[in-house]
Amino acid sequence: MVLTACGLLDPPDAGVPLEDVRTTGRMLPGQLADAPDGPHVELLTATVAGREVEIVMQRDDAGACVAIRRPPASSTACGAVAGDDAAAGSTFGVVLVDAPSSGDPSAPLAVSGLVTAEVGSIRVELEDGSTARAVMFPLAPAGVEGSGFVVYLPADARQQSLVAFDAGGIELERLEFSAPR
Asked: Buried b vs exposed e over 144-154: b needs ≥16 C-beta within 10 Å?
């Protein structure tokens, strides 16, 4: 928040905008997980920096697998579902930091993952003090409680923390990135 003569304002968002965001819940053929334990589901589609993005998920025997598909590249991470004992924290489940693999050094960096149902918003704090707000989406179509999130950062951004807030803006949990990019 920034205090001005007119009151409090949110600072500008440092993230790369997601456009044409759609939460679909569309069932997909095939499988994403090695040991699937639920449907293979498209959760979100959007456009980022002029390219289509799709986020898909499937439960497996160890939690869930989440993939970000941004042709020609794709990244997948499997791990705990938010709230499970093996999750990264009490609020976060698997978190995926997707470095651009398209060969384009200016391509934005994606940070995405799973959080518990009490999370109302996610923010990435950058080393320069700016922040980027994530887009949230439901996980129910994949048979999972909670929400997913995704935020795209400029290629030259150096992320510092991933922060979860409840609907009232109270901080629930903070994860520090081990080595900012």
From this structure: bebbbbbbbbb
